[in-house]
Amino acid sequence: MLQRIHPIDTTTDEVRVADVTTPIPFKEGLDYSCPARGTWTIAHTSMLIPHSYQIFVCPAACLRGVVLSAEEFGGLERFSMVTVEERDFSTGEMEPIFINGVSEIINRLEEKPPCVLVYSSCVQHFTGCDLGYVFKELRRRFPDIDIIECFMYPTMRKTVMPPDELMRVQLYSALEPAPHDPKAVNIIGNDFAFSQKNELYGMLRDGGYVIRDLPAMSEYGEYKAMAESSFNIYTWPSPSRSAAKLERRLGQKAVSLPVTWLYDEIREEIQEACRIFDLPLPDLDALQEEAEHALRRAWAAMGYSRESPSSGMAVQIDAAGTSRPFGLAQLLLTHGFRVTAVYSDAVMPGDEGALKWLQENYPDLPMRAIVHYQARFRERTDDSRDPGGVLAIGQKAAYFSGTRHFVNLIQNGGLWGFRGIVQLAELMEEAAREEKPVEKIITVKAWGCHG
Fold this sequence. Notes:
Number of strands: 14
Number of helices: 17
Strand content: 15-25%
Largest sheet: 6 strands, mixed
Structural class: alpha/beta
Oligomer: single chain
Helix content: 25-40%
Strand order of the largest sheet: 1-12-11-10-13-14
Radius of gyration: 23 Å
Distance between the termini: 43 Å
């Protein structure tokens, strides 16, 4: 069990996996943000609600980044802002400025949205703004619009409830109690639609379940219908609080089926899903063989051979691509791939067992920080130095390795189970054969988000 102790060396941005004894082995402090920008922010995630509208009530300095993000992904038609100025902090007028500013924006819209997400910022809390009164009044003025309270709190980024997790709680707060359909499930917490190719989706569909997945929706009524589902499935740690709150508030059962890359764990999760949803157990051996076959194809495409097993492309993995990078490293290493680095700032829940396996079998494998300030000075030459070249899984790994062969995987990309391994292996095979315009891809903020 990893213990929360201080890192031994507070200046390093790289450690051997054998030396990792705490979930956060690197010193937390001044952060570096590399120009691999494909991961989503709270402003992008809220755009998943169809036909919703965003209003940010913030100082101009804070709004600069938000408005540039909205313009970049084409979301300006669903975005407005109320600028808070320095003199507003001492007049005692923060509440009317907030209420009247938001009201004026909504009243000027030619077509009223069904839902408005209103973001307060740090300054409202520093000045003691009565946000309870603010949102009560906004809902009184606009009873036909769902007003969702949202928060842009960079000061809370490393607290017990960081902004990303809080956003995923608030994202579903407009859902209202409704009779439950015992044959309906929600997939919650993802920025990317759950792959319809994976076995969990297929099992539920074949079992007669209605599957509601917010990233796949185009109408607001579909979003509201999520309240009718009996289950909320989440596949990575961040939405856990959202699932727990929905279970308390709407009575929907929270079901954790996290993405994993290890065969034994996938088998256990499929069996658990069959038990919970009363589904027939599929042929697990056949599913595993599909994954084996796909990995063999990727192995060959990457230049490996039985005569020279170390000649193929090296693999580097990052935690922005998958929530279990150590598990993915274990899968690939046990199938003959050369994994030469894992980029992650922490060991995520559920990945500890894979880390232990790596410590016992590949103790010198480097774990490299993504946001540590020393990463700013890291030499990006791994691709040219490795005789077989480098294939990166995730944008951060692509940036730091300097390779042009990479899988553009972000937040698991909707993959799950044995078929998720099949899809990833196919993407690796494609990446080995084709170079990508890395700079053009990884500099797009919130890859896949559209206004």
